[in-house]
């Protein structure tokens, strides 16, 4: 279909444009047992942060109870949560990771 094809007064490309996907925040939650270094490693491994960024987010979670790791489409956010939860369980840490619609 050409760009010139019209429906009503709208060009086809305008009429069929889709909404952006809903985005989800991925958050880490604080607990009293997971080692700070483990949380830093999680943020580096699954959220592609350097050590400085990861340390800043870890301390924010430690001091404020929760902290933002990233914002992603639903399937990507769900995969991050699953990866973090599995990695934490595999190492016997209670670290919790959740997603929330933006
Ligand atoms: N509060 C933990 C401690 O003092 C560190 C920690 C930080 C745990 C962030 C979880 O998401 C977390 N060892």
Automatic annotation (TrEMBL):
<dbReference type="Pfam" id="PF02617">
    <property type="entry name" value="ClpS"/>
</dbReference>
<dbReference type="InterPro" id="IPR022935">
    <property type="entry name" value="ClpS"/>
</dbReference>
<dbReference type="GO" id="GO:0006508">
    <property type="term" value="P:proteolysis"/>
</dbReference>
<dbReference type="GO" id="GO:0008233">
    <property type="term" value="F:peptidase activity"/>
</dbReference>
<keyword id="KW-0645">Protease</keyword>
<comment type="subunit">
    <text>Binds to the N-terminal domain of the chaperone ClpA.</text>
</comment>
<feature type="domain" description="Adaptor protein ClpS core">
    <location>
        <begin position="20"/>
        <end position="97"/>
    </location>
</feature>
<dbReference type="InterPro" id="IPR003769">
    <property type="entry name" value="ClpS_core"/>
</dbReference>
<comment type="function">
    <text>Involved in the modulation of the specificity of the ClpAP-mediated ATP-dependent protein degradation.</text>
</comment>
<comment type="similarity">
    <text>Belongs to the ClpS family.</text>
</comment>
<keyword id="KW-0378">Hydrolase</keyword>
<dbReference type="InterPro" id="IPR014719">
    <property type="entry name" value="Ribosomal_bL12_C/ClpS-like"/>
</dbReference>
<dbReference type="GO" id="GO:0030163">
    <property type="term" value="P:protein catabolic process"/>
</dbReference>
<protein>
    <recommendedName>
        <fullName>ATP-dependent Clp protease adapter protein ClpS</fullName>
    </recommendedName>
</protein>
